[in-house]
Amino acid sequence: MSHSGLILGTTSIFNYILVVNLMAYWADESFDDRITMILEDTIAWGIQTAKSRNLLEPWLYLNYALPTQSPYDSYGAENVHKLKVIKKKYDPSNKFGQFWSGGFKLR
Predict the structure, then answer these.
(1) CA 6/CA 17 separation, integer angstroms
(2) How many CA atoms lie within 13 A of 54 on its CB side?
(3) How far apart are CA 97 and CA 95, in angstroms?
(4) pLDDT tens, N- to C-terminus, the chain (107 residues)
(5) What is the pTM of this model?
(6) DSSP letter string over 67-78?
């Protein structure tokens, strides 16, 4: 896959893309592992189905990625490097990384 075009590592985002956000809510923490497994299995099924139809765009939307996923990897090494250069220029002391709780950090 080419990681040229947009900084997100995709050139096809304006041609076709379906962003899916699976959300589940429950109160009983004893269901945590089971529901996480169901979500991960559903995502794996979607990825495999898209691959089998030659429709997979392996880009991950940062805000919808699970903690077990690595959304920056889908941007491509060159684009991640560009983002790190920008981060170093505008946030050299990593204030955003320190005060932004949760989420995926650009390290």
Answers:
(1) 14
(2) 0
(3) 5
(4) 444 566 776 665 556 677 788 889 999 999 999 999 999 999 999 999 999 998 888 888 888 888 888 999 888 899 899 999 999 999 999 998 888 888 888 88
(5) 0.69
(6) TTS-GGGGG-HH
Do the Cβ atoms of 42 and 22 come closer than 8 Å?
Answer: yes
**31/40 Cα distance (integer angstroms):** 14
Residue with tokens 């991950």: 60
* Amino acid in the structure at residue 3: H
Cα(80)–Cα(74) distance, integer angstroms: 9
Distance (Å, whole) CA 11 – CA 5: 5
Residues for the chain: how many in total? 107
